[in-house]
Amino acid sequence: KQLDQLTSDEVFVLMHHFEFGDHAQAFRNARITGASLAANITEEDLQPLGMTSSLRCKGLLQRVEILKESGVPNRMLVPRQPIPIAGGILSYRSVPKRRGSSSVRFSNTV
Fold first, then answer.
1. Do 95 and 104 meet the contact criterion of CB atoms below 8 Å apart?
2. Which end of the chain is more exposed for a tag (fewer CB within 10 A), N or C?
């Protein structure tokens, strides 16, 4: 999937995949989508989201550049395990679309 097509929930999961889970909720609250990430964000853009470490910002920006070029593998958009969020847990279930493929639906469970 192309980076600029990601929803804010998918960016939330992606942040956890990249081990930026401590900032994931701020990205979700700000409704940061893949289009937002792909729009040449800078370290200064990340600071209001709580990313004050220059090294961590650079690490995220490097990953964003790679994903802009190569796309986002589906495995990065599925939580490895349920993720705690305000009011419950973000989990997923695989929903068959058609023969040989599946879709992921996110749900909040308590």
1. yes
2. C
Using one digit for the tens of pLDDT, what is the confidence trace for 43-72?
A: 999 999 999 999 999 999 999 999 999 999
Backbone angle region of 89, left / alpha / beta, with phi > 0 → left and psi within -120 to 50 → alpha: beta
Q: Write down the pTM of the prediction.
A: 0.75
Residue 4: closest CA among 35, 32, 39: 35
**Pairing of β 83-85 and β 88-96:** antiparallel
Q: Taking a C-beta distance cutoff of 8 angstroms, is the pair 95, 103 a contact? A: yes
Residues 6+ apart with CB under 8 A from 15: 21, 23, 24, 27
Bridge partners, residue 93, by sequence? 105
| Residue 13 identity | V
